[in-house]
Design brief:
Chain lengths: 312, 655
């Protein structure tokens, strides 16, 4: 039973990832007084891309096609670490915060390799910028997670979630508040949303993530798109599970799972509306202001970590 | 059993130089020295494995050969480093059989095969020495033989200067190590490690501090912790590739061994500030090492800076171990030590592999400048794949071995959050943040290195004409790469036995929670299956030209170079680099319509400028003053000797 739930919650993270994207762009459209595309549009896009041919640059090595696969695999392995409905996860309860951060690094590493294989300037442009953002985001991401882990006395994500779920919301302290703020900022940076990167931009010179994947097309592009949607969905799930897991079940009854799902969807809806509102109300930051943005995240996460020590 | 194996290691390494000198002329016996070395190294590795498994101590006493007590002993800690030396050298010897023959004249080849086993032997001496004399003997020989091997490529101009800095700093370090051992002598008078260990509890606290600081500086110089790393990026890149591989991969680890032997074993741990010192040195080395590596465009110098970074990570683990044992939490101290030792092993594997890979690149393209490479994967499929494994390992990516040891170090830092003292907790948690930043920078650095060298378009004719290297070189590199993957997928294989060593070194440590790493095989299966599914799905693909905004004529000068790739990060960390830039436009009065423009950016490290330069200048000034004493008159020298003798006698009277 518990394995079934683990598979189910894994499929939820990976499966609703395109839907989250669709809803965000729909909400954004509404804020901007447009009608917007269907919220299921990203699924149709993926379907279309999977049925197209793969265009491979003449300079590319065999890595070019392998890189998106590794990116996708590493991202969904991360998704298999995060609990959604039940305080456990598919890759065992030992799979921990450090592994999660480094799985992101694994995917990114191969995406950078893939971007360079075309031998054009755009790949390098994107890769260099992505290196800047992701490197500076790595420390606040781990710091935020460490603060929560130290408070819960375990590094296993499922363990932390179980610990938090057993507490009253008002028992959570400043540590959780700071870590939450830091992780939200990191999520925005890591998943390439405004104000760090604009996922809908069409100008190569301002792109970060999109410049890296400029040479990709067809099924390879579909995998990359799906992986980056999954990353957003995964970060949302992580934030919800770490900071507001209430509703998550420890038993295995069908009713409990249904309640957990019913509790999960509004929370993710809140995050989606938040991101859409943020993207509609802010302009993209200048490239060299991004370190300052991540500096705020780092400062918040350092505060979270320092407070863990004084709080006990 | 152990006796035979260990003695054949010593004998094999001792006789192979003689074999080289005797048999190198003959065509058939030419490969004899290498074969003897391979057999000896395999025997040595087996001896080490036997000791690791059985925990039997093995000693060889050769006092009869030497004026001072000279004993070799293999206990668990020695066996671990012996295994590291022997096992990693096997592929290096195999690689050298092909590499050296392709690059050097017969005479230089003979020199190589004479000095190389002696260099290996000196490192074996260091890690198995059981008396201070044997240790220092091996320590000195190690410096001299490595310097001699560096000279194989000649010693003119800049090379001579770099070699001089190497020798100078090594001897300063050796003096500190010598001082550390002398510190024990007033209490025991014997040179055996056992008696040093027994006398340690009775040392005065000030003397213990002095011994620790001397050991920290002495071994730190060899290990290359910042700011004592100055020699490392100068000496490693100028050696022949197999020698650089040994120097970076193995020789640096003998310093880690020495530090652990003196601090944990002989002194038996110490106050918490020892740990803070090691932790701070580790954090600074790791961060600056990787930042300098990031901005480097010479492949071997980049790898040398990355060694500084990895030594920093090892010192982070050692520092955490010292802090935990001072705080009376032995099981976490043991885990931190396990992390440090595992990282030493991992670094030996992937750094050796990277230097051998660099050798393969220079063998095939005759350059190590990243701006002149590119597109090598198309021409060197095997080397390219192996090099990718090494890059992933050193970047600490999951499924590769670097992740396992970084994970252990991280895990202990997070456990630091549970310590009773607020100060220790905050320091350890902040160190975790430093490690995270270093991990991110290392991943960027090696992704850039790999894409600049192996992907995209070739940037020069040489790179376009590259070809793969001979089979022995490929096999040697493949052996190392396979080990990296095995340890990465099943880290418990290595972490278990290493945990047993750590348990012995930290008194009171109970079982090690290394089983926490058991998730790795599952993650590996998951990732591999999830990636492989897509390979099975058939799809149509077509080869097209790269997108160039619709314009023709995309060429290799338009793709990003390694320097360009790291520009955003270098700009953010500009305070660290502080480069000297000069832009010269001709004619200078028309800056917007130049006939020619040249740009030059030199990065002298700030240490050279602000730490070493004043020190060197003041030494020169002092030497000039002292010159007045040198009259050339023999009576005056006799007077000096007489005065020195009287001074010594007076000292003896009052001490």
């Amino acid at each position: 039973m518990s394995t079934t739930i683990d598979v189910l919650q894994f499929l939820i993270i990976v499966g609703i990832a395109p839907l989250i994207r669709g809803v965000i762009s729909r909400v954004k459209a509404r804020i901007q007084n447009r009608r917007g595309a269907s919220i299921f549009r990203p699924y149709a896009d993926l379907w279309k891309l999977f049925h197209k041919e793969d265009l491979i640059p003449s300079t590319a090595s065999p890595f070019f096609r392998v890189c998106p696969m590794i990116l996708f695999a590493a991202t969904i392995a991360g998704a298999a670490l995060v609990p959604v409905l039940h305080a456990s996860s598919l890759l065992g309860n030992r799979g921990d915060i450090i592994l999660l951060a480094y799985l992101f690094a694994l995917g990114r590493f191969f995406l950078v390799l893939g971007s360079q294989d075309g031998g054009s300037a755009f790949g390098g442009m994107g890769a260099g910028r992505e290196a800047l953002v992701s490197t500076l985001a790595e420390a606040p991401l781990l710091f935020g997670l460490i603060a929560v882990a130290v408070t819960a006395h375990t590094t296993s994500i499922a363990g932390i979630v179980g610990w938090t779920a057993a507490r009253h919301p008002l028992e959570l302290s400043s540590v959780h508040a700071f870590a939450f703020a830091a992780l939200v900022l990191v999520t925005i940076a890591e998943t390439g949303r405004v104000p760090v990167d604009n996922p809908t931009t069409h100008l190569e010179l301002t792109m970060i993530h999109e410049a890296m994947v400029l040479e990709y097309s067809g099924p390879s592009l579909a995998l990359i798109e799906w992986a980056s949607a999954t990353k957003l969905s995964l970060m949302f799930a992580l934030i919800i599970s770490l900071f507001a897991p209430w509703g998550i079940v420890t038993g295995g009854s069908v009713l409990g799972i249904a309640i957990a799902l019913a509790a999960y969807l509004p929370k993710i809806g809140l995050l989606v509306v938040f991101v859409a509102a943020l993207e509609s109300s802010m302009a993209k930051l200048r490239m060299y202001l991004v370190p300052e943005f991540l500096g705020i995240a780092s400062a918040l996460s350092v505060l979270a970590v320092v407070f863990t020590v004084f709080k006990r | 059993m152990i006796e035979i194996l260990f003695n054949s290691l010593l004998a094999g390494l001792l006789i192979s130089p003689a074999l080289t000198l005797l048999a190198f002329r003959s065509r058939i016996a030419r490969h004899l020295p290498a074969t003897v070395q391979l057999v000896a190294l395999i025997a040595g590795a087996s001896a080490a494995l036997v000791v690791l498994v059985s925990n039997l101590r093995h000693t060889v006493d050769i006092y009869w050969l030497s004026p001072f007590p000279f004993t070799l002993a293999v206990d668990r800690l020695s066996a671990f480093f012996l295994l590291l030396i022997c096992a990693v050298s096997v592929p290096v010897v195999l690689y050298s059989t092909a590499y050296i023959a392709r690059h050097y004249s017969a005479q230089r080849q003979r020199w190589f095969w004479t000095l190389f086993p002696l260099f290996l032997l000196s490192m074996v001496l260091v890690v198995t020495a059981d008396t201070a004399f044997a240790f220092l003997f091996g320590w000195e020989l190690m410096t001299l033989f490595s310097a001699a091997l560096v000279m194989l490529d000649g010693c003119e101009g800049e090379r001579r200067r770099n070699l001089f800095i190497y020798l100078l700093m090594m001897h300063a370090g050796a003096a500190a190590v010598f001082g550390a051992f002398l510190g024990f002598l007033p209490n025991t008078g014997l040179l055996e490690f056992a008696s040093l260990r027994a006398s340690a509890p009775f040392l005065a606290p000030a003397m213990r501090t002095a011994i620790f600081l001397l050991a920290f500086i002495g071994f730190g110089t060899k290990a290359g912790i910042v700011p004592l790393h100055l020699w490392l990026p100068k000496a490693h890149p100028i050696a022949p590739s197999p020698v650089s591989a040994l120097m970076s991969g193995i020789m640096l680890k003998t310093a880690i061994y020495g530090f652990i032997r003196v601090t944990f074993d002989l002194l038996g741990g110490g106050p918490a500030w020892w740990g803070y010192l090691a932790l701070a040195a580790g954090a600074v080395s790791a961060l600056l090492g990787v930042l300098y590596a990031l901005s480097e465009r010479d492949l071997k110098r980049l790898l040398a800076y990355s060694s500084v970074e990895n030594i920093g990570i090892i010192y982070l683990g050692l520092g955490a171990a010292l802090i935990f044992s001072a705080q009376q939490v032995p099981q976490w101290a043991a885990l931190a030590l396990t992390g440090a030792l595992l990282h030493a092993l991992n670094h030996a594997l992937f750094k050796t592999l990277l230097f051998l890979g660099a050798g393969a690149i220079s063998d095939s393209t005759h350059t190590l400048d990243l701006e002149k490479l590119g597109g090598l994967f198309q021409k060197m499929r095997v080397t390219g794949t192996i090099f990718l494994v090494a890059c992933c390992s050193i970047a600490g990516l999951p499924l590769f071995n670097g992740f396992a040891s970084e994970w252990l170090v991280f895990r202990t830092f997070i456990a630091g959050g549970d310590l009773p003292g607020a100060g220790a907790s905050i320091v350890l948690l902040v160190a975790a943040g430093v490690l995270a930043l270093v991990g991110g920078l290392a991943a960027s650095c090696f992704a850039q290195l790999y894409s600049a060298a192996f992907l995209g378009r070739p940037r020069t004719q040489e790179a376009a004409r590259a070809h793969d290297v001979p089979k022995p070189m490929q096999i040697a590199m493949a052996l190392l790469a396979a080990t990296c993957i095995v340890i990465g997928v099943a880290p418990s294989l290595a972490a278990g036995p290493i945990g047993a060593i750590a348990q012995q070194l930290v008194p009171g440590a109970v079982a090690i929670p290394a089983s926490d790493l058991l998730f790795m095989p599952w993650v590996a299966c998951f990732v591999v299956v999830a990636a492989a599914i897509w390979l099975l799905i058939p799809r149509i693909s077509r080869i097209t030209p790269t997108w160039a905004c619709g314009m023709p004529g995309l060429n290799s000068r338009m793709q990003y170079t390694a320097t360009a790739l790291s520009k955003p990060l270098r700009k953010v960390f500009a305070a660290v680099y502080r480069p000297d830039r000069t832009v010269r436009t001709v004619p200078s009065d028309q800056p917007f319509f130049p006939a020619s423009i040249s740009y030059r950016s030199v990065r002298t490290t700030s240490f050279e400028r602000s730490l070493y330069r004043p020190a060197v200048d003041s030494i020169v000034v002092a030497a000039k003053r002292l010159r007045r004493m040198q009259t050339g008159n023999i009576q005056v020298y006799l007077l000096y000797m007489f005065l020195a003798l009287v001074a010594a006698l007076i000292c003896m009277r009052f001490v």
